[in-house]
Design a protein that fits this description.
The complex is a heterodimer. Chain A is 77% helix and 2% strand. By secondary structure, chain A is an all-alpha fold. Chain A has a domain at 49-253. Chain A is globular and about 55 Å long. Chain B contains 19 helices and 22 strands. Classes of the chains: A mainly alpha, B alpha/beta. Chains A and B meet through helix 9 and helix 10 of A and helix 11, helix 12 and strand 18 of B.
Chain lengths: 324, 505
């Protein structure tokens, strides 16, 4: 009896822990059978390219959520970085523009954390509204920067070889954007699991009060997670506009919700403290594959949103059912 | 049968256990009709638990309750209110954004004939206790004593036969107190029984006909107040000391280690004291007297300005817990689960979290070093856990507390603040923690001990400070004085003399 129970428990915990993996495999199998085009090299490259921007935003978001907070401002940051970087290429050259763009993203994130700390907004709900507000602000700056116009990279006169490389280049079978993602993943995994700062972020998310009383630099952790989130959003933005060769002042829209979706579906708890960047990769993969499959199967985008919403609710429900 | 009609409430052999604690142990007592029945006991004696069982907030484990001649099997707060048993909690249960009338008849608007009915009926009830509050006023605008009147009117609206008042006087001024006394007499005149819970012994002697004294989840005595002296009551509340429940006190108390000068906050008034090398300093006071606020201010966990802290004669600036830790302070906080532990994390991570710098090199964690520290304290403190990777939330209270103590031992504080270190811990584990405290103090450190268990503070401390309403009201050598004297000082009974003395100085 006991053995049977334990077996069921092991299976149960495997199932809840790796449900995403199971879902991904099922999704791939079903789509493969229904729509053989899924496996064409064109489609697979397409998936890899789509994977880049969202996965980067989601990796940054992972730390914010593990730290017990949330960041809706990445949508605004994403748009702002894209248009500012593109419009800086001609005046200051492509590499300085790239660096300036990434710094701008980090700065936006850092500013969020300063606002949160000075407002004393130490609950997830308060952070949600502050970053939502800042998303509007950054988004408005993006619109002001271009006067509402979409910037096309063809209009740039100086060299854009770096961005072409990021957007179109391949190394072997991998796209460059995918390789950038891999490097980020390895670095962030190391940061999360092996460094003092990573542990501090985890503890902050686990119990802010206890962490503070034990001498964990909770405020610094909050600054780090938001700065990182802003930086990763900027990196995602660069990948995105390099791929589509235009930078629209509203292009970040939807990335914040999709990133949160990817993190939560991956199994990182919205309650903070628990989670991993590796899980986020699986979550992102599921989101991207799902939209790819549904596209191939001819499902309308409206209906796709219904499935996304449903999956988010399901993921939170599962998280609350997990044994402690 | 005649006794039944005489007794409004009769409780027999009620027991209630919470995980790790026996809150009530075969409690029996009865309340006669039309009497004011006092209930006294230290914090944690089981008064609140008993009242919550009566009003249906908690289910009882065993025993019988007979209320108004009827046996009550299971009840809920609403059922018990409807049956005529009302409870008025210390932190009044009113909806601030609604009017007085609406609060009195909350949830019963339609039965009372809508808004007009509510206000006219509330008026009648309030008049019956000589209360002039306009029923249209918002509860938010009322003073504490006015809110209490509203609660009493609410209780009367249920035609209550028994009203339980849980520390009704704790935030009343002297005049308001007289008002309450008048109402209590009135209610008694109407044949309503009252259970009156209070820490203030004067009130018990003034109002109550009969008093029941509780300690450690048991009824110690039920007597007519006329037959009791204050001294008897206090010693019944405080209780005996069991031999060998505590190790010997630390022996070598040295010179001053830490000085605290004039902490002032909204709740604290001019708190100054010193801690000597090798001693355990006990802070005694009721819950809410400001004990925890004092140590939190010292540790930089709460904001406080203008005070001075000296360690070894040198002024240290502490505005954040990190600065306190660096200066050489440690803090085992009052609420293990909310403020001490990160529950879903492992024993190892909970021990290492105060010492991440020690287990890291250039900011990178070294797993081996982390494991070594965790293993060291699991062995040294005899922490019972399957492995160090086990989540700390699955450990018992005592072992959880040892994890926190282990964390701080590795940090190596000079002054160790322990707020309720043995709360919710069984007797065996308590002794182990006492031994640890003695060791810490004797290794040139010092401990500031806060505990709601008076025997614990008195038996562990070399010196005791009593705190009442945010002020230090006395300093005692627990070996020289009786528990009663300390208790009196902590109840603010001799605070007047201290104030006078302070003014002279």
């Amino acid at each position: 009896m006991r053995k049977k129970f334990e077996l069921r428990k092991t299976f149960g915990s495997f199932f809840t822990n790796y449900l995403v993996l199971v879902a991904i495999v099922l999704l791939v199998l079903v789509t493969m059978i229904v729509e053989p085009k899924f496996l064409s090299s064109g489609n697979l490259t397409n998936i890899m390219r789509q994977f880049g921007p969202l996965s980067m935003v989601a990796l940054g978001m992972t730390f914010v959520i593990i730290g017990g907070f949330i960041d809706l401002s990445v949508a605004g940051t994403f748009s702002l970085v894209a248009v500012v970087t593109v419009s800086l290429i001609d005046p200051i050259g492509q590499v300085p523009a790239l660096i300036a763009g990434l710094l701008l993203g980090a700065l936006c994130g850092f500013f969020n954390s300063v606002l949160i700390l000075t407002a004393g907004a130490l609950t997830q709900a308060e952070a949600l509204f502050i970053t939502f507000g800042m998303s509007l602000v950054y988004g408005a700056f993006a619109l002001i920067t271009t006067g509402g116009a979409v910037l096309n990279m063809r209009d740039i006169t100086s060299s854009i070889s770096v961005f072409e490389g990021i957007g179109q280049g391949t190394v072997g079978i991998f796209t460059v954007s995918f390789l950038i993602f891999l490097v980020c993943l390895i670095l962030l995994y190391f940061f999360q699991s092996k460094t003092v700062m990573g542990r501090a972020i985890n503890l902050t998310g686990g119990n802010k009060t206890a962490a503070r009383l034990a001498g964990i630099p909770v405020d610094v952790s909050i600054m780090v997670i938001y700065t990182l989130s802003g930086l990763m959003a900027a990196l995602g933005a660069v990948n995105q506009f390099a791929r589509v060769t235009t930078a629209a002042p509203v292009m970040g829209k939807g990335f914040e919700t999709n990133a949160i979706l990817a993190v939560v579906v991956g199994g990182t708890s919205l309650k903070g403290g628990k989670g991993s960047v590796l899980r986020t990769v699986l979550g992102t993969l599921l989101i991207i594959l799902m939209s790819n499959c549904l596209n191939l199967l001819g499902v309308t985008p409206y209906m796709q949103n219904v499935t996304k919403g449903g999956i988010l609710v399901l993921a939170i429900w599962l998280d609350n059912r997990k044994p402690l | 049968m005649s006794t039944i009609s005489d007794e409004i409430l009769s409780v027999k052999d009620i027991s209630k256990a919470f995980p790790g604690v026996k809150a009530l142990d075969n409690v029996s007592f009865s309340v006669r009709r039309g009497t004011v029945h006092g209930l006294v006991g230290e914090n944690g004696a089981g008064k609140s638990t008993l009242m919550k069982i009566l009003s249906g907030v908690y289910p009882k484990d065993s025993g019988t309750i007979i209320f108004d001649g009827k046996k009550i099997e299971s009840t809920t707060p609403i059922k018990s209110m409807n049956s005529g048993l009302a409870i008025i909690y210390q932190e009044l249960n009113l909806v601030n954004s609604l009017s007085v009338g609406e609060n009195v008849f909350l949830g019963r608007f339609s039965q009372m004939g809508g808004m007009r009915g509510i206000h006219s009926k509330a008026r009648v009830l309030l008049d019956s206790i000589d209360c002039r509050i306009d029923t249209h006023r918002l509860v938010d605008e009322l003073s504490v004593s006015e809110k209490q009147m509203v609660e009493i009117a609410k209780a009367l609206s249920f035609e209550s036969k028994l009203i339980i008042m849980d520390e009704p006087s704790s935030s009343l001024t002297c005049d308001e107190m007289k008002e309450l006394a008048k109402i209590i007499r009135q209610l008694k005149g109407q044949g309503i029984s009252i259970i009156y819970i209070s820490h203030k012994l004067d009130e018990i002697f003034d109002f109550c006909d009969i008093v029941t004294i509780m300690r450690d989840g048991q009824i110690i005595d039920t007597k007519a107040t006329a037959e009791l002296t204050r001294g008897e009551m206090i010693s019944d509340m405080v209780g005996r000391t069991i031999e060998n429940e505590y190790p010997e006190r630390p022996q070598n108390v040295g010179e001053t280690l830490m000085e605290v000068k004039s902490i002032n906050t909204r709740k604290l008034h001019n708190i100054s004291f010193e801690v000597r090398k090798g001693e355990i300093l006990g802070l005694v006071g009721l819950v809410g007297a400001g004990r925890t606020e004092i140590v939190r201010a010292i540790f930089g966990a709460d904001k406080a300005r203008g005070h001075e802290i000296k360690l070894d004669g040198k002024t240290v600036i502490i505005r954040k817990p990190v600065q306190a830790i660096n200066a050489g302070l440690g803090f085992v906080s009052e609420d293990r689960k909310l403020q001490g532990l990160v529950l879903p994390f492992s024993v190892e991570q909970n021990i290492s979290m105060g010492n991440l710098d020690k287990v890291a090199k250039h900011g990178v964690l070294r797993r081996a070093a982390e494991k070594e520290i965790a293993d060291k304290y699991v062995r040294a403190l005899n922490i019972k856990t399957p492995t160090i990777k086990t989540k700390v939330q699955s450990l018992s209270g005592g072992n959880q507390q040892k994890c926190i103590i282990g964390r701080w031992l590795e940090t190596g504080p000079r002054v160790f603040i322990m707020d309720e270190p043995t709360r919710g811990i069984d007797v065996g584990a308590k002794y182990e923690i006492y031994m640890l405290m003695k060791e810490i103090a004797e290794k040139e450190g010092a401990i500031i001990l806060i505990s709601s268990e008076l025997p614990e503070v008195l038996n562990m401390s070399n010196r005791v400070l009593t705190i009442f309403e945010g002020r230090i009201t006395g300093e005692f050598d627990p070996q020289m004085v009786s528990a009663d004297q300390v208790m009196e000082s902590a109840l603010g009974l001799c605070s007047l003399e201290v104030h006078e003395r302070a003014q002279e100085i």
